[in-house]
Amino acid sequence: MTRGVDLALHLVTDDRLPIDALPSVVDAAVAGGVTVVQLRDKRVDAAELIRRACLLSSVIAGRVPLLIDDRVDVALAARDAGAVVDGVHLGQADIPPVTARRLLGADAVIGWTAHTPAHLRAAGELPAGTLDYLGVGVIRPTATKANHPPALGIDGFAELARVAPLPCVAIGGVRPDDVAPLRRAGAAGVAVVSAICAADDPGAAARSFARDADAKAGR
């Protein structure tokens, strides 16, 4: 947990998912055990992202935190429009985490992508309280993110998690049977995209990931 947030199972929305399917997929996934939802779509403009953030805020209805990928401006605008947006997940090329913290406030949840030892060192050099967790991957090759870094595998993830200054969430090609070994390797949680978003039954897919996450946490 960080800032009272359970990091065990993140759903990152797939930009290949039709917009009319997005609410039902997210609703089912949250009911199935997803603990954080991250809205990610790099193909649409800010106005459409704000609309989707408001839509997901209504669907989630406070059950789990809603984060926006990359776009602090969208998070702020969606809040201004009445949505409950709990924070952001930032990449290495996005605005500095210190700036995001100042704009979003002390209670916001802020994650940062970290693929290398240099990224971990940079995270550790930030003022205390700037970040809540690190997204570390990819675990396996994945088609959901173009030009991703070399796959770490579970052993490679474990090496980074062991020296990371913050809780690490594993992302990238994670399968249900990876959850338990990743948690044993030091993962605070896992993040999943197509394995839930593209499933015939997103709720059942979420439950298959949540079972191992819950078992490792002793819930």
TrEMBL record:
NCBIfam families: thiE. Condenses 4-methyl-5-(beta-hydroxyethyl)thiazole monophosphate (THZ-P) and 2-methyl-4-amino-5-hydroxymethyl pyrimidine pyrophosphate (HMP-PP) to form thiamine monophosphate (TMP). Its cofactor is Mg(2+). This is Thiamine-phosphate synthase. Binds 1 Mg(2+) ion per subunit. Residues 9-196 form the Thiamine phosphate synthase/TenI domain. Belongs to the thiamine-phosphate synthase family. It is an enzyme of class 2 (transferase). It catalyses: 2-(2-carboxy-4-methylthiazol-5-yl)ethyl phosphate + 4-amino-2-methyl-5-(diphosphooxymethyl)pyrimidine + 2 H(+) = thiamine phosphate + CO2 + diphosphate; 2-[(2R,5Z)-2-carboxy-4-methylthiazol-5(2H)-ylidene]ethyl phosphate + 4-amino-2-methyl-5-(diphosphooxymethyl)pyrimidine + 2 H(+) = thiamine phosphate + CO2 + diphosphate; 4-methyl-5-(2-phosphooxyethyl)-thiazole + 4-amino-2-methyl-5-(diphosphooxymethyl)pyrimidine + H(+) = thiamine phosphate + diphosphate. It comes from Microbacterium imperiale. InterPro entries: Aldolase_TIM, ThiamineP_synth_sf, ThiamineP_synth_TenI, TMP_synthase. The lineage of its organism: Bacteria, Bacillati, Actinomycetota, Actinomycetes, Micrococcales. 2-[(2R,5Z)-2-carboxy-4-methylthiazol-5(2H)-ylidene]ethyl phosphate binds at residues 142-144, 173, 193-194.
